[in-house]
Amino acid sequence: MASLLASFIHGNDARVINKVPSPIFQSWKRCRGLNVNHEQLFQDDILPSNRLNELLGKSEQLIRTAKPILQHIFSLLRRGKYQILLSNNEGYILETLGDPSFVNKTKKIFLTPGVNWRENLKGTNGIGTVLIEQMPLAIPGWTHYSQPVSFLDCWASPISASDGNLIGVLNISGEAGATHNHVMEITTLGAAMIEQSLAIAEMQAKFNLSKRDLDALGKTLLHSKASISKGDSIKTEQHNFFVPISFNHTAECETQWHGRSPKTHSILDIAMRATRTDSTVLIQGESGTGKEIIARTIHNSSARKEKPFVTLNCAAIPHNLVESELFGYTDGAFTGAKRGGQTGKFELAGSGTIFLDEIGDMPFHVQASLLRVLQQKEFYRIGDNKCHAMNARVIAATNQDLCQMVQQGKFRLDLYYRLKVISIEIPPLRERIEDIWDLAPYFVEKLCKKFSFPRMDISPELFHHLANYQWPGNVRQLENCIENMIALSTGTSTLTVADLPIEYTTNCQSSGTSLENQISQQSANLEKKLIIQALEDVNGNIAAAARKLGIGRTTLYRKLDKLHIVIP
Ligand SMILES: Nc1ncnc2c1ncn2[C@@H]1O[C@H](COP(=O)(O)OP(=O)(O)OP(=O)(O)O)[C@@H](O)[C@H]1O
To answer: What whole-number distance in Å separates Cα of residue 49 and Cα of residue 529?
Structure first.
């Protein structure tokens, strides 16, 4: 089937015309006429978070009405491997819901709020083509004009307001080639339900219906339309996959957690669950990924939020002072001790939270003392025999591989498990690039305020560039890069690629220092993962995998060789 599209692209319309449904054929013609790229998918129109929030605000009525219906149709799909999308009439995705493992697969093509799926940008696809054809359509994987989307079978139906104007599209995507029952019917049913719910809401506003009348009407609507479900109940819980998050957790320094990726959602989900207990938390992730922000988020959202949050960076103080910093000491406890002694961090934290940053650098002998304190819930100042109760919650963080350190005998196994009661892994920024669409505008706004500069925007090309950079220094590096651009800007209202510091205009990393070697090793690992995934997706077919990755076959062979990937 895919060869039909290839024939069409090469101008062999005669071979294709009777084999492809007319709306698809028309769509292919439009795409070819507009030179839409067949090999690659470009992310040309992704709204930055401020404009996305504006759009979500403007579309509030449609989203609020559609949300419970999306839940309902997801249950009609038996919560299978599907992703449901709601777009507005300009092609921007407003809301999405789906099976997490499937959503994980689709994230490479950005089925997320704020991304525009108009046909002239993305080729034949559910949202874009239905917006033009204005009728329900099935778009099997092979009919997507842009090859990277061909792993999805899609069904989409237009949504109209009561005055007949097109206001959006409901799209359901599933794995291409899998068995799909009734999905077209469910899509049109979902769109009709949204239209009717909107009409009811309009009626309510017009005739001032009571909430009870409206509920009764709503129930009738759901039950009368749910015949396909064979007894499925209507689920009301919300799954906010991909909704941008702006998590304001501390008034004191106004730091906010920003990001919309599924990984960000699951990190915050675990963090929020951690706030309900006093269990120790171990946060692991590369430097600059936001470990401290997460620790503060847990503290500020917990019952301890009015109590102190005390930090000890184990790497920033000499080894022989870590213990006294933690537990404090009495007057004359050791040579060089301050007169009058010193209060330790555990005492300062009281019944608040103690954040042990860079725990991997904690000296071995102090690890034993810390373990004892965690187990016995009491500690002594050095040189003192007065016992203090330990009431603080402990959150530890590290960018080292503690598990490996345990194997190497550098970190105590018992302490490792004691700390890791709740474990949070923060992935590097390059593995959650969707977050850049929130982080970059957030930093621009924050830094413009800091420098008292007028507001600035980010050009789409710059977004593209930022999203394609590897960010070895993670969010901290992104923030520094933006600070550099703003500080050196010359009265511009839009930051562009030309404002990028020179070192960011290429992704090349020279080898040499061990940090750089580490970074290039990580990029190689990432590349290896992407290649293996692409090969798996196409059952080991080299030509198809190369197309999927947007590289030539020879290049792929070279990379397989270099990365020691063996195809069974
Ligand atoms: N999701 C986020 N939203 C907003 N700002 C962020 C986010 N993640 C990180 N930052 C910012 O990036 C910088 C680094 O974050 P943080 O200090 O929490 O990282 P870290 O992982 O603890 O780093 P290190 O391991 O080097 O101590 C901070 O300025 C922080 O405000």
So the answer is: 29
Residue 237 has pLDDT above 80, yes or no: no
pLDDT recorded at residue 222: 44
CA distance 217 to 199: 11
Cα of 291 vs centre of ligand 1, distance in Å, is: 6
Task: Give the contacts of 210 (CB within 8 A, at least 6 positions apart).
Answer: none
3-state secondary structure of 530: helix
- Residue 239 confidence (pLDDT) above 70: no
CB 129 within 8 A of CB 139: yes
- pTM metric for this prediction: 0.56
**Is there a contact between 46 and 435 (Cβ–Cβ < 8 Å)?**
no
C-beta separation of 145 from 31 below 8 A: yes
Q: Which DSSP letter does residue 18 get?
A: T
Q: Is CATH 3.40.50.300 correct for 430-504?
A: no
Cα–Cα nearest to 73, from 177, 192, 196, 215 = 192
Instruction: Say what the pLDDT of residue 540 is.
Output: 83
245-427: in CATH 2.130.10.10 = no
By most ligand atoms within 8 Å of CB, the mutation choice from 475, 478, 479, 483 for ligand 1 is 475
Ligand 1 mean position, distance from CA 50 (Å): 21
Question: Can you tell me which atom of ligand 1 is nearest the CA of 478?
Answer: 12
What are the residue ranges spanned by the domains of the chain? 2-229, 245-427, 430-504, 514-562
Closest CA to 194 of 61, 76, 56, 79: 61
Nearest atom in ligand 1 to the alpha carbon of residue 285 is 21
Domain 2-229, CATH homologous superfamily name and number: GAF domain (3.30.450.40)
Q: What is the ipTM of this complex?
A: 0.98
pLDDT at 434 over 70: yes
Query: Which atom number of ligand 1 is nearest to the Cα of residue 256?
Result: 4
Is 1.10.10 the CATH classification of the domain at 514-562? yes
pLDDT for position 555: 82
Tell me how far apart the alpha carbons of residues 52 and 258 are, in angstroms, rounded to a whole number.
Answer: 14
User: Distance (Å, rounded) from C-alpha 111 to C-alpha 90?
Assistant: 15
